[in-house]
Write a structure and sequence with these properties.
Blueprint lengths: L1 H35 L15 H10 L11 H17 L10 E3 L2 E3 L9 H22 L3 H32 L4 H6 L11 H14 L11 H4 L9 H26 L10 H22 L5 H31 L1
Antiparallel strand pairs: 1-2
Helix pairs in contact: 1-9, 1-10, 3-4, 3-9, 4-5, 5-7, 5-11, 7-9, 7-11, 9-10
C-alpha cells in the first residue's frame, strides 16, 4: 500500500501547489500591472498585499450567484468545472524535479509518468474549451454566445500551430514522454536547436490561454465580458482560476520542451522549475499591461497565414536536419 500513499501525497502536493500558485498569480498580475503602469498595486491586505488573494476568495464565496432566468441551469453550473478540471489534470504528467529517495522509497517528482505525455496534455486542453463554449451557450445571451464562438474558432486555429511547434522537439528527442525530453537536454536546452519552434509555441500559448493580444473571447470593449458575462460569485472565479492554471501548465510545457525543464546549476531542481514558470508568467503579464489586442480578422489571419506555414516549415527543416545528421 506504500505506492498508493505515495501517489495520494504527490497528487495532494502537486495540485495543492498548483492551485495556490494560480491564486497568487492574480496578486502578481496586479503588482506587475502597477509596476509597468507606474501606480500602486495591492498593498493593504497583509504585507505588500500578500493576503489579497485570500480576501478575494472569501469575498467571492459570499457573493450571490446570479443565474439568468432563461439559462440552462445544469450546463450553466457545470461549465466552469469543465474548464478547471482539465486544466488541473493536464499538469499531472509534467515532471517538476528529479527523483528523490524518502524513507527507502524512490519517488519520481511527477504525478503520472505517461509515455505519451504531450498527447495527454493536448487531449485535455481540447476538452477544456467545452467549458467555455457550453458556459457561453447556457447563458442564453448574445454577448457570451459571441465570445464562446470566438473562443472555439480561436483555439481550433491556434492549437494546430501549437502542436506542430513542438513536433521539432519530439523528432529530435524521439519520444513523447516529458521525462525523456528533459533527459535529452543534459548538454544544452532544445531552444538552441528549435528557436523558431520556441517562438511559435510562446505566441500560440498566448492565444490558447486567451491572453493579450489574443483575448478576443472576453473583449470587454465589444462583448461586455465575453463568454463569462453572465457569471458571478465563485462560478466567475473558477473560470479565471482555470485560466491561470492553463497558463501555468503551458508555461511548464514550454520550460520542459525548450529550457530543460527542472535542470539548472546550483539551485534545487524544483526551484529551477518554479523560476522558469514564473518567468513565463511575468512575460504573460507584462505583455497584457503594455499591448493592445488585435482585431478578430487579424487574429485569424495571423494564425492561419503566418503561424501555421511557419510551423510546417519548422517541421520540414527539422526533418531535413535530422536526416542529414543520420546520413
Amino acid at each position: 500500500m506504500a505506492w498508493l500513499a505515495i501517489i495520494i501525497i504527490k497528487v495532494v502536493v502537486a495540485f495543492g501547489a498548483l492551485l495556490l500558485i494560480a491564486a497568487y498569480m492574480s496578486w502578481m498580475e496586479r503588482r506587475v500591472f502597477a509596476l509597468v503602469q507606474v501606480r500602486y498595486g495591492p498593498n493593504r491586505v497583509g504585507p505588500a498585499g500578500l493576503l489579497q488573494p485570500i480576501a478575494d476568495g472569501i469575498k467571492l464565496m459570499f457573493k450571490e450567484t446570479v443565474v439568468p432566468s432563461q439559462a440552462d441551469k445544469f450546463v450553466f453550473f457545470i461549465a466552469p468545472a469543465l474548464t478547471l478540471i482539465p486544466a488541473l489534470a493536464a499538469f499531472a504528467v509534467v515532471p517538476f524535479g528529479d527523483a528523490v529517495t524518502l524513507f527507502g522509497h524512490k519517488i519520481d517528482l511527477v504525478v503520472a509518468d505517461v509515455n505519451v505525455g504531450i498527447l495527454y496534455i493536448f487531449a485535455l486542453s481540447g476538452i477544456g474549451i467545452y467549458g467555455v463554449v457550453l458556459g457561453a451557450w447556457a447563458s442564453n445571451s448574445k454577448y457570451p454566445l459571441m465570445g464562446g464562438l470566438r473562443a472555439s474558432a480561436q483555439l481550433i486555429s491556434y492549437e494546430l500551430s501549437l502542436g506542430m511547434s513542438l513536433l521539432g522537439v519530439v523528432m529530435i528527442s524521439g519520444s513523447l514522454s516529458l521525462k525523456d525530453i528533459i533527459a535529452g537536454q543534459v548538454d544544452y536546452p532544445f531552444i538552441f536547436l528549435q528557436p523558431l519552434g520556441f517562438i511559435l509555441f510562446v505566441v500560440c500559448m498566448l492565444a490558447e490561454t486567451n491572453r493579450t493580444p489574443f483575448d478576443l473571447p472576453e473583449a470587454e470593449s465589444e462583448l461586455t465580458g465575453g463568454f463569462h458575462t453572465e457569471y458571478s460569485s465563485m462560478n466567475f472565479a473558477v473560470y479565471f482560476l482555470a485560466e491561470y492554471c492553463n497558463m501555468i501548465t503551458l508555461s511548464a510545457v514550454a520550460a520542459t520542451f525548450f529550457l530543460g525543464g527542472w535542470r539548472g546549476p546550483f539551485l534545487p531542481p524544483v526551484l529551477w522549475f518554479l523560476i522558469k514558470i514564473i518567468a513565463f508568467m511575468f512575460f504573460f503579464m507584462w505583455l497584457r499591461a503594455s499591448s493592445p489586442r488585435l482585431r478578430y480578422d487579424q487574429l485569424m489571419a495571423f494564425g492561419w497565414k503566418v503561424l501555421l506555414p511557419l510551423a510546417i516549415l519548422n517541421v520540414v527543416v527539422t526533418a531535413v536536419f535530422i536526416y542529414l545528421m543520420d546520413s
